[in-house]
Amino acid sequence: MTVLPYKDKESGKKQQVADMFDNISPKYDFLNHFLSLGIDIRWRKKAIKLLKEIQPKSILDIATGTGDFAIESLSLNPEKVIGVDISEGMLDVGRKKLKKRKLDDRISLQSGDSENLPFADNMFDAIIVAFGVRNFENLEKGLAEMYRVLRPGGKVVILEFSKPKSFPFKQLYNFYFKNILPTIGKTISKDNSAYTYLPESVKSFPDGEIFVSKLDTLGFKKTECRPLTFGISSIYTGIK
């Protein structure tokens, strides 16, 4: 069963996700860092370091949001970074952030559907995604598009929430995710559904080895899953 942000609306998941991020975009960066206690910043740094060995010159950041992962990728000194997202609200916040930091000449943010990417085959050296794949309407189609636009020998790095399995962290995490996070998120973002959708979407996401097997099926090689912080999130990698 597909998890939707707004269960009372008839629109599909893709449109609802776009609407949700448009709604919360003004408060998204603050909530992201606040609710994760800043750990998400360390996760992004760790994920980007996994690309160092291939020294990518062209990087595509899918579901870029406000561009944090794209900005972190600049540490690799690429020639071109493009971020795509279906939420114009998030992209608008991201463009203002890039302009303020004088990075708008190094990163291009544009509207784009992860399941129908507007790029040629074999175009990018690396593809990165942070907390975005679980929001895809069709996960397999989105992953197949990543494979298509990645050059042979290129690398994909996906950072996504996962489900802790060990006691007592599993129980503490579930309590926080189901009770505290939605309350704070709703109060600050003024969106009643967005931070209820977050734990529901994480719960339904095929994490760990199940997700790795999906990458394998699509043709990615040397696939790996690296759990982070007691399994709160994981980094998935693969080579085309």
From TrEMBL:
Catalytic activity: a 2-demethylmenaquinol + S-adenosyl-L-methionine = a menaquinol + S-adenosyl-L-homocysteine + H(+)
PROSITE patterns, per the entry: SAM_MT_UBIE, UBIE_1, UBIE_2
GO BP term, pick one: menaquinone biosynthetic process
InterPro entries, per database record: SAM-dependent_MTases_sf, UbiE/COQ5_MeTrFase, UbiE/COQ5_MeTrFase_CS
Pathway the protein contributes to: Quinol/quinone metabolism; menaquinone biosynthesis; menaquinol from 1,4-dihydroxy-2-naphthoate: step 2/2
Tree of life domain: Bacteria
Coiled-coil stretches noted in the UniProt entry, renumbered to this chain: none
Gene Ontology MF terms in the entry: demethylmenaquinone methyltransferase activity
The protein's Enzyme Commission number: 2.1.1.163
Positions with a binding annotation for S-adenosyl-L-methionine: T66, D85, D113, S114
Keyword vocabulary terms for this entry: Menaquinone biosynthesis, Methyltransferase, S-adenosyl-L-methionine, Transferase
Family stated for the protein in its record: Belongs to the class I-like SAM-binding methyltransferase superfamily. MenG/UbiE family.
Function: Methyltransferase required for the conversion of demethylmenaquinol (DMKH2) to menaquinol (MKH2).
NCBIfam families associated with the record: MenG_MenH_UbiE, PRK00216.1-5
PANTHER family: 2-METHOXY-6-POLYPRENYL-1,4-BENZOQUINOL METHYLASE, MITOCHONDRIAL, METHYLTRANSFERASE
HAMAP family: MenG_UbiE_methyltr (MF_01813)
Record protein name field: Demethylmenaquinone methyltransferase
Organism: Marivirga aurantiaca
Protein encoded by which gene: ubiE
